[in-house]
Amino acid sequence: MTAVNKKLDPGQFFLQKLSMAKALQKRTLETRARLIAAAEAVIEESGYEAMRVEEVVLRAGTAKGTFFAHFKDKDALMELIIGARLDTYLDELEAAPDPKSVEALAQALMPLCAFMTSERYVFDLILRYSGAAAIEAIGPIAVNFGRQVDLFERWGTANRFRTDIGVDLQAEGIHAFMIQAMATHFCSLHNAQSINDRLVPYLKAWLAPNS
Amino acid sequence: MTAVNKKLDPGQFFLQKLSMAKALQKRTLETRARLIAAAEAVIEESGYEAMRVEEVVLRAGTAKGTFFAHFKDKDALMELIIGARLDTYLDELEAAPDPKSVEALAQALMPLCAFMTSERYVFDLILRYSGAAAIEAIGPIAVNFGRQVDLFERWGTANRFRTDIGVDLQAEGIHAFMIQAMATHFCSLHNAQSINDRLVPYLKAWLAPNS
DNA sequence: AATAGAAAATGACCGTGGTCAATTTTGGAG
DNA sequence: CTCCAAAATTGACCACGGTCATTTTCTATT
Questions:
Q1: pLDDT digits over B93-108, tens only?
Q2: Which residue range forms the structural domain that includes residue B185?
Q3: Maximal CA-CA distance, chain B
Q4: Minimum-distance nucleotide, CA of B61 to C1'
Q5: For chain A, how many structural domains are there in total?
Q6: What is the CATH number of the domain that holds B166?
Q7: Which of A62, A95, A128, B116: disulfide with A66, CB 3.0–4.6 Å?
């Protein structure tokens, strides 16, 4: 895989998807911007799970039907907003220097992991949308997951942790363990261990076996 | 971890949860059995995603409120039914001889994986309930995931694939890659690769590095 | 057998996501 | 400027999960 996907804010992503359709009216852009802004405001105040379509359209000053003319369903807007957040984390990671050790690698991933696990609702939605195809066409979260693996490949190329497997396989493994560490984190109120403490042993065993 | 959890059908699981509460009336048992049977019939005919509470109570001959007196919500019944299915697969795996190679290990997991990925809805629900605690108290699917890891530990103890890491870590890795293989499977209508073909390279790299 | 209190069942009702035929607005052709 | 077809918006309406005060049924006590 090569890194073809660059950052997109919610609006830009929408534009890209419709780039080959007929031109959009200015009114359309304004309405969508109001809806997104209203949703972000609600989320800011009460969290992702608490977002209600009724509340969003009320604040945006539109009818409910307008919401669904702009977004396939509630989840589609959530995906847009969460995907944009994920992209800002990826931007920072891509701009930063490649981690030189397993510990540094895990450490670098923590801000992203913290956001993904900030709400159970967020984590579940991300997992649900991380695989495209079932949800017609590829969405922002699936795109972001592609960027993640691309970045891990870059890290693996710059600093070969393992030489017995390809960088792509190595990258997918990092990703799998990152998900595992986050998922496990939710399991235990008891035995409260940080995501980093869960991730490091996985990655050591994956990236530096027999050592 | 030790294997403390044996198979439970939906009814048994419910009983266990309430074992220390006051005795249940015979009527209660019958009603719940009718609800579960009705739900299973609907699922048999139309799949998990198509199950509707209204349809279930209609077939069971109860009022809607009765459904929610027996199950916290629709997902709780789904978890019971899906968890029971998962348990039958685990029973078979536990009864079978330990796989002697990575290929055999992956092969042994295929029936379980096939069920888990039989519907996107099923896979998402399993992931959502695989971590307990957030969903008050541990449910059948989380219990089953514990059984899975316990079994992988047994396999790893019987046939040490890697000696540089503990059997528990080894088992968690197998689990992580199993999830990864299934999740990736949903991503691509294009590039249709079997779950087994996805899982084997992961497990080879995990269980037999440098070879 | 009568009765009281607990357990179970009921169904009208609600919240919220999502639909769609009807209406309004827009941009452009003449 | 007028008019029209396409685009955007509207809000009444529906589907479906979930609630709860009320009613029915069960069980134990006398």
A1: 999 999 999 999 999 9
A2: 10-207
A3: 62
A4: C9
A5: 1
A6: 1.10.357.10
A7: A62
